[in-house]
Amino acid sequence: MIMNKIYKSLITISSIFIGIYAFAVYAFLELGIAVHPMMKANFKAHPIGIYFHIFPALIALVLGPFQFNEKFRTTKTHLHRFIGKVYLLCVLIGGISGLYMAQFSFGGTISHLGFALLAVLWIFTGYKAYSSIIRKMIVAHYHWMIINFALTFAAVTLRIGLGIGFGSGIPFEVFYPYLAWICWVPNLLVALMIIRKDATPLNHL
């Protein structure tokens, strides 16, 4: 129980921190200033795609953790629904723009496929979460949202991976293509493990 609260707190704090950081960097600083020089040219060549991905994604990242607060869901139902709609709209916009930008990601085919699949799964799980709640399938909706936010949280794990990569001394061009997968696959596996503890199998959702 205590460990669950610690994990949830860490997720919330890290999500808010990265969200604020991303907003400050992309809203007030030169585009590409916070990325590796090898990526800066791509950012500058596709500013609309970057902005349409970054800002919706950071909004979803900051809003997401609060949607899992049980007290908030039960006492502020209307607000929970409104925030949920905003969250899923941001996922849709961020996912479509992310899928578009995946073809320009640094690192070649490995990066392109990693980020493209992340975008597709992000959109798909968002759709499943929405369609589930429309059909009053509360448990299914909750499970799909766990998976979806695990993918949203890739914004945090990507930056953790960057720190580890740079700290290890491995050349950027070597570790970054694999980070396009490492930033979200472990998150997805953890989400599936959490859901598996429930009585409802994922293939029945």
Largest sheet: none
Strand content: under 5%
Task: Tell me how many strands there are.
Answer: 0
Low-confidence blocks of residues: none
Helix content: over 70%
State the order of secondary-structure elements, H for helix, E for strand: HHHHHHHHHH
- N/C terminus separation: 27 Å
Morphology: globular
Give the count of helical stretches: 10
- The class by helix and strand makeup works out as mainly alpha
Query: So what's the oligomer here?
Result: single chain
Describe this structure in words.
The chain has 205 residues and is mainly α. It contains ten helices and no strands. The chain has helices at residues 2-28, 37-45, 47-67, 70-75, 77-102, 109-134, 138-152, 154-168, 172-182, 185-196. The chain is globular and about 45 Å long. It starts with a helix and ends in a 9-residue tail after the last helix. The model has no long low-confidence stretch (mean pLDDT 93).
